[in-house]
Amino acid sequence: MPDGDFDNYWGAQLHLQLQEDSRPPWDRAGGRVSGLSFRITGSGIEEESFNVGTPPTPEEMYPGYGIERPASSGVQHNIPFASLMKPRWAPTTPLPDALPFVGIVWDISSLGEGATTFDFCVSEIRLIVAAE
Fold it and tell me: DSSP letter at 103?
């Protein structure tokens, strides 16, 4: 925890960048990819969330959609993109079907106040392809 600043840091984040420089954002394989499957393992995982970043808009520099999940080390998660909402903590707006992604983010919450050791792994990442 930088400088022991527990009031402003709430967990750890793993970010998979899907857009770089002037390249276009990922278009979800032309809309054929309908979700993502993955496994998170580790100790001390109290709560996790899965999020996607979308291109900036005039209203938001870093828009994103997500879903919060209870802790479940070792369980295979299958997240349909249709289940992602904005904002994640008070969901009101679903992810539009055609919106491309600039990044995928896994957030692991800390265990409350005080020092938390983060030791987790995201593995077995697979695309869920819509049936044709």
Answer: E
Interval 48-102: pLDDT, tens? 889 999 999 999 998 999 998 877 788 899 999 999 999 877 888 999 988 999 9
For residue 97, give the amino acid letter: D
CA dist 77 and 69 (Å) reads: 9
**Residue recorded with tokens 């995201």:** 122
The pTM of this model reads 0.82
**Closest by Cα among 46, 33, 53 to 105:** 53
Cα-Cα-Cα-Cα dihedral sign, residues 122, 124, 127, 128: negative
Which residue, among 130, 117, 116, 105, has the nearest Cα to 40 in the 3D structure? Answer: 105
Give the whole-angstrom CA distance, residue 56 versus residue 102. 9
Strand-pairing partners, residue 43, are 119
